[in-house]
Design a protein that fits this description.
By secondary structure, the protein is of the alpha+beta class. The chain has five helices and 14 strands. Strand 6 and strand 7 form a beta hairpin. The protein is elongated and about 60 Å long.
Length: about 280
């Protein structure tokens, strides 16, 4: 009987140990997820460069794309079921700029640690209707060259938006927080605006009055102006005036525009250009 009791006691101890292990594993998993969410907040504000071949064996260098004025939407996936919504949200956000800013926004999708093949990624994208393969670039990430950890990972999925010659990160979220098409869209808009401001020639220095404005603005500039464009933050031209013979200090109406922030671009008769931000209220 004592032997049977000892056996029963050992089995009970094994059960308790197993329960403890399961509980500990749950605690560790929860902590890891919490740290993953925290890394979204504490990750650096500027990107880390990488060079990697895509699934068509074409090399891409992140900083080269950013320096050339591209906005890069980067998505890491396992791929997994929980990655679907975030990857779709990022794809739809990127595609929303295809008409207004053709070729400006690129969508990169990579395996997180390089253990999924290009075929795996392609099948996952098609099966889950993530988006058109023709509008994205895939990386199997062999050798873990595109390190998610350089951007505050891990977390599945992981979405970043980057732009500008300063290689700024405008959006960096993981896990369920990436199911955020409006937030990703807003980040892309901000990146486009900053990139456009930095790439437009700034030798046309002008003032806009009043600013904030309500129904119209006057552009004060020391040379005749050939064209004025008012654009939304996503780059869409919402107002335009062309002065074939040039105009000094012209006025443009803001009728019909919603309240918010817009960009005013001017082009003079000599080909110089400039840009200013205005607020309509």
């Amino acid at each position: 009987m004592s032997c049977l009791k000892n056996v029963a006691k050992l089995k009970w101890n094994d059960i308790k140990t197993t329960k403890k292990h399961k509980a500990m594993k749950q605690i560790i998993t929860t902590a890891a997820l919490a740290l993953g969410s925290l890394s979204t907040i504490t990750a650096q504000t500027n990107a880390t460069n990488w060079t990697a071949p895509d699934c068509n064996s074409t090399n891409h260098t992140l900083f080269t794309n950013l320096d050339n004025g591209k906005i890069v939407v980067m998505v890491w996936v396992m791929p997994c079921g929980s990655c679907i919504n975030g990857a779709k949200a990022a794809y739809n956000a990127a595609q929303s700029f295809a008409a207004t800013n053709p070729g400006k926004v690129v969508y990169y999708l990579a395996d997180d640690i390089g253990d999924a093949t290009c075929t795996d990624l392609t099948n996952w994208i098609n099966t889950n209707s993530i988006g058109s393969l023709g509008n994205m670039t895939l990386f199997s990430n062999a050798g873990n060259v595109i390190k998610e950890s350089d951007f505050g990972g891990p977390g599945m999925p992981h979405v970043t938006v980057m732009g500008g010659t300063d290689h700024k990160i405008y959006y960096n979220k993981m896990n369920g927080a990436t199911n955020d098409q409006p937030g990703i869209t807003s980040a892309i808009s901000a990146a486009i605006t900053a990139t456009n401001v930095n790439t437009v020639a700034r030798n046309a220095v002008f003032t806009v009055l009043p600013n904030p404005a309500s129904d119209k603005i006057t552009v004060n500039y020391n040379n005749p102006i050939r064209k004025i464009e008012v654009t939304a933050l996503n780059g869409t031209v919402v107002k335009k005036e062309v002065f074939e013979k040039g105009a000094m200090n012209p006025t443009i109406k803001l009728t019909g525009l919603a309240n918010g922030v817009f960009m005013v671009k001017i082009y003079d008769m000599d080909g110089n250009a400039g840009i200013q931000k205005i607020v309509k209220e």
